[in-house]
Amino acid sequence: MMDFATVLPATRGEEDEDGALLPPQPRTVRETGLELQLIVELAAKAIYVAGRTHLPILATRLRLSINVLREALDFMVAEQLAEVAWRGDADIDVQYQLTGAGKQRAAGWLERAPYQGPAPVPLEAWRAMAARQSAQLAAPSAEDVEAVFGEAGLEPAVRNLIGAAMHAGRSMLLYGPPGSGKSTLARKLGRLLQGTVLVPHAVAVGQEIVQLYDPALHLPPALPPGAAGRQPLERRSTDTRWVLCQRPVVQLGAELDESMLELRHDVYSGCYQAPPHCKAAHGLFIIDDLGRQRMSAPALLNRLTQPLDAGQDQLSLQGGHKFSMPFGAMLVFATNLAPQALLDGSALRRLGYKIHVGALSEASYRTLFRQQCRAAGVALDDAGLRYLIEELHRASGQPLLASYPREILGRIADFAGYAGQAPRLTVAALDQAWSSMFAACASAAAPCLAEDEAEQALLRARAP
Fold it and tell me: 14-28, 58-72, 285-299: which range is least confident on average?
């Protein structure tokens, strides 16, 4: 087996505009790090499904170079599994088809392993790439945090805690009342992730294939200002089994259970799906609504923090074979529940930063409301904003939570649209939006506590 630390030297690759190293295109089967048999099977299955196939099209489907495929196809022709169906004037202008024996073999390979996607990279190559990228990624600065959160109405103390946690790459627990904006804040942390990363389409673990790339999570790099219409970076000389993407943000909530953190074998595609925390490599892995999962908060914390400390997670294939997959995401937990009710002191110490996200100051609330007015296209009326704070919030006891401005303005727009009018920040519109947001309580002078009581009842029910 070749040393994959030598497959990705800086002198042989190319760099994108963010400095991310793009591995060189393999020129031989040996340079792919894969067994010839695996490439032959992938090629045979692709031709079996598509019929007579043009060589460049096969190269695009498998993300392998023409030279690598020629080596595999020459072997298939020699073994009478494939034959040249048509040849043009150019060297690459050639079409292949399977022989009768090749179709039989391909049908058997499809039945055993239906996977027909891009060729994988070896697990060792992914480990080497993950380690190198972890060492190269930049941490956000105070200026970056200010640029992202400066106009979000976030209290300065909270901004400083978030900035320190992100700069150090440590886990954090966001806690506070419902509506304080924890989930939105957690997602917005992704804007502090700098640079781009390379993610393989799939990884070869022995004879099995684990799919890692997810187009819903691994988004293409954002174009820099003024780059509209610019041609993408030329990838013909680089290994296109790797995808250049933004650093991922993966978010799960109450639906998370223990099985979701393990490999999942997909019978239809014939391969394994990497668990979400492994897909979040070099990005954020957000667990929202901590304490509402089907596994306890301490068990979830143990399941994630131990492999995170090691930089890799132990996963198991069907049959029991274990292997380690890189795991280098930043953990962010968010909860409406009291941290001490979820975790004991020892568990809380394992979380890097505990950050309370509560009610905003009046100045911050005003700033956020003005910003949301601009975003919603509603003209700001200072008298209306004063009425909202002094008469509605203060009289009812409802705290100045970060989720309220967007919700109030959204309801004003709903009612105005229904009436065929432009949304306006009037006392009547504010009263109408306000009354539609809150369930009637025994006393109008105190906030409704039903949701908080339900949360506490849930904790008591889960207590041993």
Answer: 14-28
Does residue 25 form part of some domain? no
Please say if the pLDDT value at position 457 is more than 50: no
Number of domains in the chain: 3
When pLDDT is cut at 50, 70 and 90, the band that residue 155 belongs to is confident
Total residue length of the chain: 464
The proportion of the chain whose per-residue pLDDT surpasses 70, expressed as a percent, equals 86
447, part of any domain: no
Strand partners, 330: 284
Question: Are 421 and 346 in a shared domain?
Answer: no
Structure tokens at 203: 């990884």
Rounded Cα distance between 194 and 129, Å, is 17
Whole-number Å distance between alpha carbons of 142 and 159: 9
**Confidence band (pLDDT; 50, 70, 90) for 235?**
low
Residue 313 banded pLDDT, cuts 50, 70, 90: very high
Distance CA 168, CA 176 (A): 23
Report if residue 444 sits inside a domain: no
Distances from the Cα of 77 to the Cα of 59, 83, 88, angstroms = 17, 5, 18
286 neighbors 184 (Cβ within 8 angstroms): no
Q: Shortest CA distance to 116 belongs to which of 276, 262, 266? A: 266
| Four-CA torsion 107, 112, 116, 120, nearest 10 degrees | -140
Q: Which of 314, 335, 356 is the last residue of a domain?
A: 356
Residues 291 and 331 in one domain: yes
Report the C-alpha gap between 247 and 194 in whole angstroms.
Answer: 8
Residue 195: closest CA among 135, 106, 268: 135
Q: How far apart are CA 69 and CA 243, in angstroms?
A: 20
- The mean pLDDT value for 322-336 works out to 95
Task: Quote the DSSP letter at residue 238.
Answer: B
Picking from 394, 194, 355, the residue whose alpha carbon sits closest to that of residue 282 is: 194
| Cα radius of gyration (the chain) | 27
Tokens of 254: 């109450």
CA 266/CA 273 separation, integer angstroms: 7
**CATH number of the domain where residue 264 is located:** 3.40.50.300
Binned at pLDDT 50, 70 and 90, residue 156 comes out as confident
Contact 364, 154 (CB under 8 A): yes
Beta carbons of 40 and 29 less than 8 angstroms apart: no
- Residue 144 CA to residue 159 CA, distance in Å, equals 11
